[in-house]
Amino acid sequence: MQRIFLVLLIACQSAFAQKEASDFRNQQLKNRAYLPNEFKNSFANTDFSLLFTKTENESVFGFIGDDYQRIRVKIISVSKSKTVPDTYDVYGKSMVKTNIDKFHGTLRITNIRKQKEMSYGADEKYKSKGLKGQFMIIGDYSFSEPKNEKHSGVFKGVFESDFYLDRNNKIHYDDIDIQADGYSNNEFVGYWVSHDGEIIKRCNWGDYRIPNAGNLDIGAGDFSPADKYLKNDWQTRRDYLIQNNQSKKAKAIEQAKWWL
C-alpha cells in the first residue's frame, strides 16, 4: 500500500511540474504584446549562444522544491549544434547548499516571436539606434547530471529568452528595460527529477527574477527573498541588499565563482 501511495504521489508531482512548464509556454505564446507570426525560420542560421552566458551569476536566482530552497545555476558554455540548427549543447553546474553537480544537455528552440512595439528604455535611450525589433525565444531544455553522483538527476522544462536586433542585424541580449521594476530574462520553468525517477521537485530560475516565484520574491526594484525563506540559503542575498554589518561577507558569497 505504501509503495502504491508513493507511485501515485510521484505521478502527481510529475504531472504538476510538467503542467507548470506547459502553462508557462502557452502564456508566453499568447502574450498579446507579441505578433502571432512565427519568426523561427528567419533566424535558423543565427547563433544565440552568447545570450545564455551574458549575466553575472550573482544576478541569476533560482529555487528547487516547494520550500523554495535556493539553487544556484551557472551555464558555463553554450554552442550551436552543427547538425541541428535549432539545438544548442550546454555545459554548466548547479549548487544546492554545499552540493555542486555538473550537467550537460541541450536547449532546443521551438518558437521565436516579435514584439509588436519597440521599447526604447529609460529616457528613450535606444530610440535613435535604429533597432529592428525585440524578440522572444521559446524552447525546451534538458540538462542531465552524472548518474554516478549522489542526489543527481535531470533538469527539464521550458525556457524563454529575449533579444533585440540592431540596425546591422546583429543580435543582443535584451537589457533595454533592465532598469524597470520586474525586469527579467533567460527564464527557466520546469522541474528536477532524480535518475531513478523517485524524486521530483519544481525548479525554476532566471536572470534578475525567478519565474513563478510565488511568495518567495517580495522585492520591488530588485529580487528580494521573503523572511520565511531566509533559512533556505537566501540570507546572504538579503544581507547583500540591505547593507547591514554582514553585507561585506554576503557580497563575497554572492559574487563567489563557486563553479570554478
Model description:
- With 260 residues, this protein is α+β, with helices and mostly antiparallel strands.
- The chain has one domain.
- The protein is built from three helices and ten strands.
- The protein has helices at 2-29, 235-242, 247-255; strands spanning 60-64, 69-70, 72-80, 87-96, 99-114, 133-144, 153-165, 171-173, 185-194, 200-207.
- Strands 1, 2, 3, 4, 5, 6, 7, 8, 9 and 10 form a ten-stranded antiparallel sheet that branches.
- Strand 6 and strand 7 form a beta hairpin.
- The longest helix has 28 residues, at 2-29.
- The protein starts with a helix and ends in a 5-residue tail after the last helix.
- The relative contact order is 0.17.
- Residues 4-9 have low confidence and may be disordered.
- Beta percentage is 25-35%
| Overall radius of gyration | 19 Å
Q: What is the number of beta strands?
A: 10
Q: How many helix segments?
A: 3
Structural class: alpha+beta
How far apart are the first and last residues' alpha carbons, in Å?
A: 46 Å
Total number of distinct structural domains:
1
Percentage of residues assigned to helices: 10-25%
Low-confidence stretches: 4-9
* Main beta sheet strand tally, sense and closure: 10 strands, antiparallel
From the spread of the alpha carbons, the general shape counts as globular
- String of helices and strands: HEEEEEEEEEEHH
Arithmetic mean pLDDT: 92
